[in-house]
Amino acid sequence: MARTRGRDRARADDDEREPAKEPKPDLSIPLPKPAHPRIIAVANQKGGVGKTTTAVNLGAGLAERGLRVLVVDLDPQGNASTGLGLNIRELEATMYDVLLDHVPIEDCIEPSEVRNLFVAPASLDLAGAEIELVAAMSREMRLRTALAPVKDDYDYILIDCPPSLGLLTLNAFAAVGEVLVPIQCEYYALEGLGQLLHNVELVQKALNPDLEVSTVVLVMYDARTTLAEDVATDVRAHLGEKVTQTVIPRTVRLSEAPSYGQPITTFDPKSRGAWAYRRLAEEVAIRGAA
Ligand SMILES: Nc1ncnc2c1ncn2[C@@H]1O[C@H](COP(=O)(O)OP(=O)(O)O)[C@@H](O)[C@H]1O
Ligand SMILES: [Mg+2]
Questions:
Q1: Quick one: which ligand is closest to 56's CA?
Q2: Which of 164, 187, 262, 279 could, after both became Cys, cross-link 246 (CB 3.0–4.6 A)?
Q3: Rounded to 5°, angle at Cα 188 from 183 and 193
Q4: Three-state secondary-structure class, residue 70
């Protein structure tokens, strides 16, 4: 029994160690600033696929390299807000007030513990917004209008979408230039993707001609399974250049960080997850600058 535990622990440690062959970005070199603020929706209508983890840690990876980043939490669960250290019970204003009561977004933006990284938080009342917005004027354009006065204050605005294609996600699609889709390296990875791409196309035609799915990221990759490898190959075959070279591994540390209110880059700066999100930040920034 004890021996089994020892072996499990050895394997868990192994899981966290960064393989020597993976390149490590030089953190002393700032990442290129985009010519215009890049506003990116992190979306996938499936829950639990790594949207929030990606919005928070990509944001931290960009902020760590000198870019000013705002994470907009558009999920009533508020996981991005708590994951960046906010106590969502103590907030004076949230994205609900911004979307429903025309409160300026500046009034709800809070600094995180990471320099250059800010959050526009959400709390549970945002669940009501999905319904209350139905009858509201210009209901799809609320977020776009709200972001307009602050967008030039940031290099990147990352919008953490809820797990649906409802009015909140529609507001995100109307407000952004790009969609980033995290795809979990598991069975049914591509299921629902057609519907997501179709919705992006509808919004692009009707509301926002600039909208495109610019980036697809493979997440929760478990190198010990051939399934993950098969899914990755399949996704690359379908989506080609949109898929980043960087793959985010499945690691325990990534799942632990949110309960400490920190992104992985400060929670465990030397972990595999931290280096993976740093590589992703570098890749996203360089692609955008090209
Ligand atoms: N690469 C990863 N390795 C391990 N756990 C992860 C990873 N990415 C996300 N998780 C965990 O999986 C769960 C779902 O991730 P989350 O980012 O909240 O998904 P979503 O926002 O799409 O619902 C969370 O508990 C999160 O901590
Ligand atoms: Mg989430």
A1: 1
A2: 279
A3: 55
A4: strand
Q: Is the pLDDT of residue 13 over 60?
A: no
- Whether the CB of 48 sits within 6 Å of ligand 1: yes
**Distance of alpha carbon 190 from alpha carbon 172, whole angstroms:** 22
Span 132-160, mean pLDDT?
95
Q: Cite the beta strand spans of the chain per DSSP E.
A: 38-42, 69-73, 110-111, 117-120, 156-160, 178-184, 212-221, 243-249
Which ligand is the nearest neighbour of the Cα of 78? 2
State the distance from the centre of ligand 1 to the C-alpha of 53, rounded, in angstroms.
Answer: 6
Question: Residue 79 CA: which ligand 1 atom is closest?
Answer: 18
In angstroms, what is the C-alpha Rg of the chain?
A: 19
Q: What is the value of pTM for the model shown? A: 0.94
The 10 Å Cβ neighbour count of residue 186 is 16
Percent of all residues in the chain with a pLDDT value above 90, rounded to a whole number: 82
Neighbours of 177 (CB within 10 A): 17
Ligand 1 within 6 A of CB of 51: yes
Half-sphere exposure of 112 (CA within 13 A, CB side): 33
* Cβ contact 104:134 at 8 Å: no
What six digits make up the tokens of 283? 């890749």
